[in-house]
Amino acid sequence: MSAGGNDSHGARRLAVILGGGDADARALGILASVLSEFSPEVAGLFLEDADLFRLAELPFSYEISRLTSRSHPLTTIELEREVRVQAVHAERALQVTAERAGLKWSFQRMRGRLNTALEAAPNVNLLLLSATRRSIVSSGEARALGKALRTSENEATRPIVAVFDASDPATVALQSAIRLSRNTNRRLEVILVAATADAVAELRDRAVQLLAPQTATLRGVSDMAIETLTDAIRTAAPALLVIGANELFLESSGVSLLRRSIDCPALIVR
Amino acid sequence: MESPRELSPSELYQACDPERLSFESTSELEDLKHLVAQERATEAVELGANIDVDGYNLFVLGREGTGRHTFVREYLQQKATKESAASDWCYVNNFEEPRKPNALRLPAGRGRELGEDIDQLLDDAYTAIPAAFESEDYRTRRQAIEQEVEELQEKAFGAVNKEAHERSVGLIQTPTGIAFTPLHKDEPISPREFELLPEEEQERFKKAIEELGQKFQAALQAAPQRVRMARNRVRELDREVASWAVGSLIQALKAKYEDCPDAVAYLESVEGDILENISLFRIRSEEQSPLQQLLLGGGAARVQEEQPAAKRYSVNVLVDHHPEKGAPVVFEDHPTHQRVMGDIEHVSQMGTLVTDFRFIKAGALHRANGGYIILDARKVLLQPFVWDALKRALQSHELRVQSAGQAYSLVSTVSLEPEPIPLSAKVVLIGERMLYYLLQALDPEFSTLFKVAADFEDELDRSTENTMLYARLLATLARQESLKPLHRDAVARVIEESARQASDGEKLSARIGLVADIVREANYWAVKNGTDHITVVDVERAIEKQIRRSSRLRDRLQEEILRETILIDTEGERTGQVNGLSVIALGDFAFGRPSRITARLSLGSGKVIDIEREVELGGPIHSKGVLILASYLASHYVSDRPFSLSASLVFEQSYGGVEGDSASCAELCALLSSLADAPIKQSLAITGSVSQHGQVQGIGGVNQKIEGFFDICRARELNGDQGVLIPASNVKHLMLREDVRKAVGEGKFHVYPVETIDECMEILTGLPAGQRDSQGEFPQGSINQRVTARLLDLAEKRRSFAKDGEQRGDS
Questions:
Q1: What pTM, to 2 d.p., does this model score?
Q2: Is ipTM beyond 0.90?
Q3: Which of A33, A46, A55, A113 best tests the B interface by mutation, with the highest count of B CBs <10 A?
């Protein structure tokens, strides 16, 4: 793939960090439509949350089911089994997606935290992180709510959202988002992030140049705080977030916060 | 003995004198707008068509070619144009029970209009509803509801979160739920670190986690209620917006159709249903996945045509009438169950047959509802299930669309039960008389449903008035079919031929179809000859060619007689042998065939053996004739003595069936000849049936029979002795060919009308028959005396034989 026609911006490998559950399927669904354009090879990394296992070792730990609200003891053995099942599902989903796109693929499990996973993929230009629910509600409730809302707004109409701050990774991210928008026939929204309003205006001009002839909705955020950005992203309700991996976002806390704050997959372009 | 009466040429043919026709050409004649001499049938049709009483449907009976179809159709069409147009009928979706689509009744012409209006409404809704839902107002209000739910959720969980944070406890997602963990400096404590904590601290964490867990559970359990409320509010909002988007459109349509209660009711139900199914208007087929398109069946093009809302709300215009064309008159030429009663079609989707209200198809009865339907009775009876379905519809006054396969459980698919449509149509069946009487006899429901029989005459009187009407009929035919006009000579010849087809010189055939064919073919020859009119020559030629086309078998039979393969004598005398005459009918062509009939005698117990019957080649009427002649013999000659005769009668060289009693006269003559030992002239042939009193009775096909014998005689050269004996009552039926008449005129051939068997025997044998004197005795030497003597002799022999037998038995 050549984002913006420059091979230097193209990803040689695409890493997909999966955390288990429905969010993985959505991440791979988005990935499937563009996979072959972004990378000839995809490496799947299943992240097992180390904190969970530490918790399970506590003598009084228990979990409350999201589905039924019932509580039951949380044991390491049970947790291991559940995580293994999720990993198998993730691996199969990745296999199907990659083979359909005719790509080589690999898959490995890793126990640790997100920054561990990011460190494990240093040579990867694009990372696709699957979504983590930001609000804690049961999946049953989420489905019910989702159904009620889908009667008035189709899931398919949610846009591709790109975050643009003029950095090189952000430029590549915008170009990737343009291509994704075109391929998936979704609207494109661009969030312009700068410290001041004037800087946002400058960014707007640059974004318009990069976009032409593509049209997109442009929103400005004149605040460099990660919390302000996540609010803007949430408002846009993206189907996929495409973001350049600059220093702010590449910090593990930034990525973690982003991951906790949005309910969609995020494509991180490095 | 007096010379037998013989018919003159003028008695052999009832000619139509062209000089008595008051025109030169049919071009001078006015069109005939009614049938000739069919008053009885036309009155019945008028009654049946006009009477508005249950069960007064029509059965029009008569022979093919009598103009039944044309008359009925023209009469009904003329009547129907003055009547008000029938209602349009539509089927629409029954939203509450889709298996039972609803029927809508609308004034003529408005069904299609409603269908188009609904299509337009759906098109408008496809634009208006998405536009309304994409409006900023809608999005804001919807987001406000979502926001409220989120805030309530966040508030509930946030409170737990906050308290957890204050108590140094963290929430963590597990693969299937949520768990709590003690924190140290915002990081989860490891089991080892936890063990190192003071026991008091450990207990504090345990207690905090337990309490937080309970609060979290409570928050989780409250969430569904909040979601449900939010969902209801979003739904209400959607209904409000959709109602605003399409309400005015539907309101306008309701005003337009305010005079059609069915349409207004349907529009109201559409309005309500659209509000419940807004999503149909928010996903166009272009947005459907390939899998969805595949599941819907058909190609992409089909799917694009069929928006989901169209499938649900469109109007299936079953019957569409023009408001100014009067009541419908429908003639269904191919009355299958589907074509008469309608059908529910299915389409294949993923190997399964499915259907809905749009696949309900109208039958002829639907189209005729409010008017008239004409059906051919034979075809109706030949088609499976149609007769029963037709009767059921007439009895229930309802039209239920049901495929025959479904009705008789021949197929097992999900199907529909459309709402029945009230039926108010006059059914006219056209068929043969046999069918009418069979239905009367065998189907008890028939007479209650078809109370009016319109019986078309096969023949009409050959009066001066009818002759002129016939001429006008020919004139009308020529004009309607762009044929050349007929010269009056040609008209006269056609009328004569019509009388011949009626087999009666005093009648005309009402089978106009056959006569029309002669005129059409005569026109062909007239065109070929380049004449302005159809002349008598053209008519003669048309008749001749018709006969030639049909006469192959006749010619072959005559050939075999002339080659003496089939033995028929036309000269000399033979005892116990007579030339009988029969008719062979092949379609519309009939010809006479002479047959040799022989009789043999022996002493017996008074039985006349009909060999044809013995071998099951004789029909019941023929057997009846034989029994009658046996009765005549027994009673006329030796009524006071045992009838001691055994006789056998046979049609020589007859290998097909023999039916009818027209040979009984000939058979009796053969027997009498044998009994009297009086040879019969083989130059004569005889036809006629005989009564128990020896009277000769009329038969059918007299013309063909005479001509059949004449042809053989002529082929062997007429010798002046040859002729035919016919019943006197058949003289009026004579319409013999010109060559026969000519031969009779020249004395080369003879036609003898006979009334009694005595006359027959006198002509056939040249001997007097003899009348009983005052003593009851026949004159010596007469036929009857010789017959009596022979019978007495046989009786005596039998008595003697019986006596000898008794004596032998005693000894």
A1: 0.65
A2: no
A3: A55
